[in-house]
Amino acid sequence: MKRMKRLGLVMVVAVMTLSAVGCLLFAGAAAGAGTYAYVSGNLKTTYDATLPRAWEATDRALANLDMVVVEENNDAFSGSFSGKMADGRDYTVSLDKVTDETTEIAVRVGLGDRDVSETIHSEIAAMLGR
């Protein structure tokens, strides 16, 4: 009986360790260039750009994609653009300063349209010369 408990504990620890390693691998991949983390309908990535530079690139990207901005807010630490797509879906692009030289940008379209979110990120990257 004692052996079964020990075996069960070893199995639980092994599963938890494998799960943690998988999360670390995913987080590491998300930090690299051109990779995204898709969390709760938001497609996120971190750009090597100051917040003001990322803000300007996002503004130009949305204009290039003919996306009407209904509201925009920004300060020294974060910012956001929001509006409606031509098909009536809402969109939000949020920017958060990570360091003085990096900015995380999260894009959400409707309930979480990953394809359109990737298109927006591609245009932002193009505006940043990436």
Describe this structure in words.
The chain starts with a helix and ends with a helix. The longest helix is centred in the N-terminal third of the chain and has 30 residues, at 2-31. A hairpin with a 2-residue loop joins strand 5 and strand 6. Strands 1-2-6-5-4-3 form a 6-stranded antiparallel β-sheet. It folds into 2 domains: 1-31; 35-127, Kinase associated domain 1, KA1 (TATA-Binding Protein), CATH 3.30.310.80. It is α+β, with helices and mostly antiparallel strands and 130 residues long. Helix 2 (51-64) crosses helix 3 (114-127). It is built from 3 helices and 6 strands, in the order H-E-E-H-E-E-E-E-H. The chain has helices at residues 2-31, 51-64, 114-127, and strands at residues 37-39, 42-47, 68-74, 78-84, 90-99, 102-109.
Question: Which structural traits does this protein have?
Answer:
3 helices; 2 domains; 130 residues; alpha+beta; 6-stranded antiparallel β-sheet; 6 strands; TATA-Binding Protein; globular; single chain
